[in-house]
Amino acid sequence: MQAILDFVRGLYTTEGLTSLIQTGGLIALIAIVFSETGLLVGFFLPGDSLLVTAGIFASPQAVGGQLFDPLVLIASLVTAAILGDQLNYALGRKAGEVVYNRPDGRLVKRRHFEQARVFYEARGASAIVIARFVPILRTFVPFIAGVARMRYLRFLRFSIMGGALWVGSLVTLGYFIGMTPLAAKLHRVILVVIAVSMTPLAYGAWKQWRATRTAG
What we know:
216 residues; 75% helix; mainly alpha
């Protein structure tokens, strides 16, 4: 268990991400993107910072040399993100309320489902796209769409759109950062990416806390 915790912590450090990308290569990146979007237990994986860092290593001026062709990288990770969504939707469609209402597990909590359900109901189909850019929600919203029996072709259309925008924008951002002096300050870039990606969750939690206080 300690080894797993150390691995997870490492994913949120410059050294851990760099080591993962350099040793695992494209296969490791595909596996993480697929797992975060396709498996409920993958909600803790660092999708945003991983994509930006991968984009930096796809830059011709990357420290240590260019590791990836940017077009191959984007195409591979967009495919992984879309396929992950399809698995998650299928799991939600099949399991439905059984999984949604089960007791809390060690990792997956009912509050994760509830946050995703509220977000999905408030945003409708656009939630499939918007959730791509929000940690935790991008893991659980496709599942909730399956539970709600959203029409599959409609889900697929928004899933493709969201996957392409999410991967394409963050990898491209990293690619251009890799051409600037900021690439040498990767730890700061990662901290900013994490902070920005967590802002919607923090705002949602604040709104919920404020509503609870007002109701009380």
